[in-house]
Amino acid sequence: MFPRARPRRRSGAAGLQPPPRKPLLSLAGEPLILWVVRRVVEAGACDRVVVATDAREIAAVVERAGYEAVLTSADHQSGTERVAEVVDSKSFSSYEVVLNVQGDEPLVAPAALHGAVARCEAGIRSAPPQATWIARSRVMRIVSRS
Questions:
Q1: Torsion-angle region of residue 123: left (phi > 0), alpha (psi -120 to 50) or beta?
Q2: How far apart are CA 142 and CA 124, in angstroms?
Q3: How many domains does the chain have?
Q4: Is the pLDDT of residue 127 over 70?
Q5: Binning pLDDT at 50, 70 and 90, where does residue 15 land?
Q6: Which residue of 23, 76, 112, 116 has the lowest C-beta tally within 10 Å?
Q7: Could you tell me the CATH number of the domain that includes residue 89?
């Protein structure tokens, strides 16, 4: 199975701070986070889509729209750490792969999501993450339990 947990970023590219509660900013009349969630759901690449956030306001918006949200610690330095907290819970123990998509990417390509999952299904694993990847906010990350 392939769940998908999406975090919100704490700091942007080059160390810039995103606007507070960026996923709640309006895009064509709806919060950005809902555009992202719908895009991922419509892509159909994952069995489960979860928004991981430390903001109750974001979780409430997501849940009111009928999607799943998990509140996490506010102490995380990155979305990757936030996702790790969520997938470490018992309810995710049966999943082998977690696809981490940033909560401010409403135009993420469905082909990219499917391609990442397909690589894992085929048993192809990326090289271990490099420090430069982690520093870049637009790198899609896959977490696999070996």
A1: left
A2: 11
A3: 1
A4: no
A5: low
A6: 112
A7: 3.90.550.10
